[in-house]
Each structure stands twice: as C-alpha cells, then as structure tokens.
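Hey team,

Filing this mostly as a record. A colleague (T.K.) asked me to run one chain through the structure pipeline before their review meeting, and I want the input and output archived in the tracker in case anyone asks later how it was produced. No errors, nothing strange. Just documentation.

Input sequence:
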Amino acid sequence: MAGATADPSADQALGHLRQWAVATQDGAGDWAVTGLTRSMAQARVFDVLDGWLENHADTPEQVAPPLLAFWGHQSLQEFLEIRGPWPQRVLYGERVLDIAHSGGGASTVAVMAGHLATAYRNTGNVEGARKGYEEALAAFRELEDGVNVAVALHQLGMMAQDRGDVPEAERLYTESLEIERQMGNQQGIAISLHQLGMMAQDRRDLPEAGRLYAESLDIKRRLGDQHGIAVSLHQLGMMAQGKGDLPEAERLYTESLDIERRLGDQRSIAVTLHQFGTLARDRRDLLEAERLFSESLAIELRLGTQEGIAISRYTLGLLREQQGRLREADASLQEALDIFRQLGSPSAEQAERDLARVRERLAAGK
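Output structure:
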C-alpha cells in the first residue's frame, strides 16, 4: 500500500520511515554511508511526518492507507507517542481506526486499537484506555502475535501502576518481559526492565532498581535507541536526586534533556524541565523552580497530557503555599485534585490532604 496516495509528502515520509526502520533493526545501515547518525535519521522522520500529519489533520482518510501499512513500525509508534497533542491524536486515531475496520486485517485493527488506547490514557479517558488495551490483548493472543501480546501486557501494567495497584503492575510487566525474552525482542526487554526498575525504586529497593536501569540502558545503547537512552538517564537522575547527589542528578538530567531536544520529544522535555524545577526547589531557588514548573506546565497543556498537567499544577500549588501565596495554591491544588480524581490516581489522597491544609491556613488568616 506504499503507493496508495499521490501525495509526494507521503512518499517522502514513508521513505524516511522505511530507511529509519532499517537503521533501527539492522544497525547503522545506509546511514553509516552518509554519516547520518541514527538519532538524526529519527529526527528527520519525525519532522517530515509531523508536517505531513499537520497538513492532513482534517483529512486522515488521505493518509490512512500508507500509515496502516507501516503502523507496526516502532518508529511510527514512537512518533505518535512523542509528538502529541493528545486530544488531536484521539480524534485522528478514532477516524483512522474506523478506516482500519473497513480496510485492514485483524492485526492492523488490534494495533490501531492499542495506539488509540494510549491516546485515551494520556487524555484521561481511563475506561477507554483499559477497554482498548484489553481488546488489543485478546486479539493478539488469538493471532498468536507474541510481540504485540507483550506490548499490550506492558500497557496494562502501566495502567495498573497509574492506579496504584503495584502487585498487578509488577505481574503484568514480568509476564511481558518473559515473552520479550522468549521472542528475543531486545527493545521490548529494555522497556520492561526499565518499568520493573521503577517498581523497585518505588518500594525503596534502590540496589535492585539501579541494576535493572543499568541493564536496560546497556541494551538501549547497543540498539542506538536515543529516546530510550534519554528515559533511562532521566530515571537515573531521579535516583541520584533521591540520594541527595544534586550535581550528579543535574548532569544526568542535562544529558537526557539534550537528547530529548534533538528528538523533539516534547512530553519528555516537559518531564525533565519539571525535574530541573525540583532541583531548584531543593536548592531553595523558588523563583527558578516556579519558572521551570511553569514552562513544563505550558508544554503539558499544549500536548493535553492530563497526568502531566495534574502533576505540574500540584507541584506549583505546593510551591505557592511555600511562598505564602495561599489563594493561588488553593486554585492550583484544586485543579490538580480534579484531574487526579478523573484519572483514578492514588495521588488524589495526598492532594486532598494538602488542599485541606491550605484551606485551614486561609481560614486562620495565616
């Protein structure tokens, strides 16, 4: 279906996608001849596809045939997850899924449903996300598609982690990892190891978390997975910050942010700017912390990522309480709490307590 559209920008985009997929799967490939690094190739794919989708935002049926042909490529999956904005991706994904139902096979429909579920998750449609992932998982099991079974299990694990169900999240990540190992899918192994590292970090098992992050990062470096490397560096920065090693945390965040900016990964840029804000707060530079938190929030708002918006508003609320700006703190914490409740996030309980404290201070005139 590569020639299903007469749009020359579609041909250009798909050509870049094919070349980058080869570079990702088979090493440096042709990029080594031209001197173009894998990360530069990835950025080029994203830039071309971004412009292409923007030009056809109101006519997805024109881009659906070639996209459906390449939907399974990890490069395209990363593009959609990195670039946002999520509300636009929901509308786009719903329309293209309808096209897939009429013109695609069972596997294509299942992959599309899984990607749409990710868009639902990021826009706060928890039920839509759960339903989409479960339908995709059932379809992939029936198709005996081990790679995508592992992906669907991983995504359901992330949803369990979102709602604070740690045992279920760990069970799903472990099952996903076992399948990835059986399939020899190195990228999938790296992603699952990273998530299990986060689980270990959350339960304060820092040696185990460090081991899992290091194993994941080693695989990502071998694969040349720039986005994955940035994610791992970021998480290692959080571990260093948790240990009180602020210079090492800053070094790791900076290295991560440099990669994210090269890739145009707006969501990860927002998350890393937020962490730089926490570093400034830890150093008592509250004005710089507020600037960074606000810059992060602006990106999250542009992308429509509900979890990120809630976290940014919550952090700004606590900062404004610290600055004595209680009415602003009240508004920020209430906005965060509303989103946490919508997402079914366990963070809602702490936000409720913090909001009650701020309101007690307001009532007391403190």
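Quick notes for T.K.: The two ends are 67 Å apart (CA to CA). The chain is about 85% helix and 0% strand.
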